[in-house]
Amino acid sequence: MRCVFTASDLPGRRLCSGDNRGLRVENLGAEARGTNMSISLIAKTIGESATLKLNEKAAILRAKGDPVIHLGGGEPKGKPPLDAITAAAGLLNSGEVRYTPADGIPVLKQAIIRYTEDFYGRKVEPENVMASGGAKQAIMVCLQAILNPQEEVIYPAPYWVSYPEMVKLCGALPVPVTPEDGTFYPRLQDIQEHVGSYTRAVIINSPNNPSGAMYSEKFIRDIVEFCEKEGLYLIMDDIYHRLLFDGRRTINPYDYATDLSENSKLVIINGVSKQYAMTGFRIGWSIANKKLTEVMTNIQSHQTSGPSVLLQKAAAGAITGVQSSVENLRLTLENNRNVLVELLKSFDGVHVTKPDGTFYCFADFSYYDKDSTHLSNLLLDKVQVVTVPGVEFGMEGYLRLSYCGAVKDITDGIERMKWALDPNSPNELYIGDRKLVRDWT
Description:
14 helices; globular; single chain; three-stranded antiparallel β-sheet; 15% strand; 37% helix; seven-stranded mixed β-sheet; Aspartate Aminotransferase, domain 2; alpha/beta
């Protein structure tokens, strides 16, 4: 059988006559498509990660010797658990660093199964588990597995900067929902009002990045029951679920699910990055029904294959090893939060909601500047303090401040910020042996 193509079938290519083996397709390249570089429509909608961009900028300034203080970071400064380092070192010494199954090595999946039973009271099977290159990849692969073009994903605002871009990468539409009462705590009716015929999934991140807000037990119960009733996927981004303060306890979404069969559309996302201070290890995971996990694994197998065996071994070591580092980190973060909140109270006009968990505070600085990007740039340029503009999280006028570093960084950083913003501050500020003079209003 001989196939015949027309020019419209193969845009940018020319059909050429050849020998009796058929037609030859010649790529015309720039001649047919013009001289401008072409990128996809989806790619044109995707912006760079604001947080990663700031991390890079802070690193460049530090490399130059500038005394920058990074209050915009998203990684704890503690060391990974010794069990994680030992497990990775043992494998590295063996030299057996090979390819891995696309859904994760057995020892890590067993550790995740145990973790799920310990913290969620739910016994899952290996076919329900997929290990990934960080919780971010687990969410991305999940969205790719469930979304069709033009379908919608709902999530409360403020939200993690990557949610909108991930949804758009699937050709779908992000639908952020700002609580009607002006707080960081959504109610079911806030979500319900935005659900339509194209709604496919809801993402819940509690405690929340950037606000640190832990959503109420009533809201978690309501959203689990609502998504079950409406047949919506519910993606629970639980990456901070053990970093809670003031005696708060983790809320388990499985407690309110009535469908725990293989038809369940509840997806749990977690990882080692935050609770074990292992951000650079890039290991996360998902718990979902077997069919969805199979599809997610297929997608991941063509994207990155399985995560590095070295890093998976380290993650398994952290999960099954001594857990004291998590509690030590939590206590440190709770103390740091208290220091930061008290310092922010000294600002005129700054409104701050005390975080319930995570290591972020989302403070309203609109009294000084309603343009959070302009304000963040001013603080970096004038006093070399890195903050993240609230607009990146869906709320203008706010700044996200991180308290996962040293207390001295927090106190010095806030002191610099107050000097830059408070018109009643002295006209000069010394940073080490450098003298700064206020030349702005």
